[in-house]
Amino acid sequence: MSETAQTPPNGSIDLAIGAALRDLRQNRDLTARQLAADANVSAAMISRIESGQVSPSISTLGALSKALEVPLVSLFRETTPDHVNFTHVKEGEGLTSTRIVDEHSHEFVELAFHKRRDLQFEARMVTLLRQTARPPIYVGHGVVFVHAVEGEAIYGYGQREITLKAGDSLSLDAELSHGFRRVLTPRFRFLTVQAERRR
Question: Can you say how many angstroms the Cα of residue 188 is from the centroid of all Cα atoms in its chain?
């Protein structure tokens, strides 16, 4: 295995890769010497990478990721942007909105929304009232999670109908048509979380 390495052009990236490598190695209870043997690189190279002294080649990183049994991208997990966001919504707070689709309307409270380069994530608390107008049906991407908080309703997933009562949960691939078909109690409240890969 070639151990080609260059003087770091960007010290912060090399330090981040080194920190990720050290963390992954230690989580697997491997010594630098054991990892070096598995990846067919020298223990000195492992030490230099972990201390951010070198910019390892892609082939070296590939050998290390294979030896650690992790995707190559795991070695870049600490090379995040210089900012991150978090949302803390206290009880009774959140952005309240009303969605109107044809003659149907329902309220929801936005609890979280994150849009990253690779992922979009959102969480809402939704209140449906029993009404003659049918709730909307959705088709999308990613995964949807629904947790019933109050009441009872019928959820449609493709041709299947699923009864949800308080305490029940449902998760599904969003590519198939899905959505509530009937509210059986005067009011139905549920938490919904959706995550999808950004294309």
Answer: 27
